[in-house]
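Quick one from the shared queue. A colleague (R.T.) flagged Acetate--CoA ligase as missing a structural entry in our internal table.

Convert sequence to structure tokens.
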Amino acid sequence: MSYPFQIKTKEAYEKAYQQSVSDPEGFWADVAEQFTWKQKWDKVLNWDFKDTFIEWFRGGKLNITENCLDRHLEDRGDTPAIIWEPNDPESRHRILTYKELHFKVMQFAHVLRNNGVKKGDRVCIYLGMVPELAIATLACARIGAIHSVIFGGFSAQSIADRLQDAHAAFIITADGAYRGNKDIPLKSTIDDALTTCPFVRKVIVLTRTHTPVSMIKGRDVWWEDEIKNVETMGNPYFEAEVMDAEDPLFILYTSGSTGKPKGVVHSCGGYMVYTTYSFVNVFQYTPGDVYFCTADIGWITGHSYIVYGPLAAGATTLIFEGIPTYPDAGRFWDIVDKHRVNILYTAPTAIRSLMSFGTDLIKQYKLDSLKVLGSVGEPINEEAWHWFDENIGKGKCPIVDTWWQTETGGIMISNLAGVTPSKPSYATLPLPGIQPVLVDENGNDAQPVTNDKGETIVSGNLCIRFPWPGILRTTYGDHERFKQAYFSTYENKYFTGDGSFRDTDGNYRITGRVDDVLNVSGHRIGTAEVENAINMHSGVIESAVVGYPHPIKGQGIYAFVVTENSHVHELNKDDILQTVSRLIGAIAKPDKIQLVSGLPKTRSGKIMRRILRKIAEGETGNIGDTSTLLDPAVVEDIIKNKL
Ligand code: 6R9
């Protein structure tokens, strides 16, 4: 497979970028021509950020699985599509060629149909990192059902919220999942979620851990039994459903600044074009390369850069079931050597955590197959960047620092490996088709200033002023929220929620969220969500949650909690943690809980988070203007008892 749209030189990047701005429709039409369409589009782009509609390739008809699977059969049917590395290094790994993956996806599409799934139905997928997770997602896409993958670490309550929001009547799960030395009881969590979701009609359960599970007659069926039924049917061919380019492909929930996660909706056509284009260009994928992205398919990085982008490009994508520190902190390097990985895409939090184990372990591995390294999820600090470069890349692998979001579908700002220069801690330049702008509070273009190092920079809130094919199309079931969240802050611009600098060469350095969203180990967590969960705990009156710098997680969660004085049972912090775990999941557990007598508030009753943030960051000598505080004694008290 060749990629006519692959950019191979700095000059070609500049040319592509220019063209993508002067003639976006012509530019993206040329890229889209490289895919299999059942019917060509009538119009490349219709959009209005004010009225908030965006359509790419209107009238085009396709099925993304034909692009990820069928079209590779002739030339690369026997090439590995998926290499699966199990949690336990002593267990056998699995390889699925494009032919085998195609076959399994069609088989499972039959299973879905046999169980009543139809085009447009929402199907929730709650699985560990097994090949069946990719198979299930692709089978949904094959039949035209909208998948909603939920990360295996989310609680029953979080699952129930998502099932209700999407009104998903079908679930695909497993008895359990292996992660390091833990067995995660997936089915039993689903059972808990389903007590409040009577509309769920079918639960398909894969066998993985042999954990005992309860199976409800008529509702719950085993994956393996269903496959046997399909085998007796004879011809496994499953005709791919004809989808409009703008039909939804999936929903993926993500935290925003309000309490309720948003169901980000991506389309079939634009998403396919954008993930493939960005995959091939950012990582400079060459056919035959083994590509390993360490994210979980439960997050957007896994959707776009484990499943759809790589498979549409005919790549070999490695799926790893376990965690970086099991059985020891050399696991990633072991996988790299074992499968001769060429491209490794991971997260700063993983790098920082592995740094803390020192470099002795790394010396046992060759790591000589590596050509390109990548980072995603949060700003990468210079120390981690250099450590990664020296110890893993051995100074010879370009590092791509890829900035993007669940909402953007694919990588937006990044260097292209070995093609455009990297700059430690900078995501660098926008991809062709991406038009970033930095704006001030009023939405005007931010003006250059001189920073304390004497450099001229522009600093502001990061917006994008023109659509790209991978942009989200709506938030599920609530288009008004989509409008509010992304297009109301600044007129005619998509607002990312991130702050950024830009140097005189046009390189962007993302500084982090400017809204009430935290980035904990690369996971987006809304402070309001955590507060809602804490406030559910008996004896809690109110709470405020802020982030603080954490050496490994990037940001840690600091919770200030006001409790009832008269509460008989003394409030135990571990109990509060338990409540957060139950309601959201372990990833949202605060790192610090400080019980306080009151929160700093303005006269109008608004919590002054700015002050709490300063306290959590340890900058108690510099908490800023407190003149609007209702009761300054509250702040003194909090500072005195700070953790
Ligand atoms: C892909 C993904 C999005 C938020 C985003 C930003 C942060 C992601 C980054 C980065 C600096 C990078 N972020 N990549 N910040 N440099 N290379 O992570 O999606 O989970 O939706 O998070 O993550 O703050 O707004 P998502």
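The mean pLDDT is 95.
The radius of gyration is 24 Å.
Added to the table.
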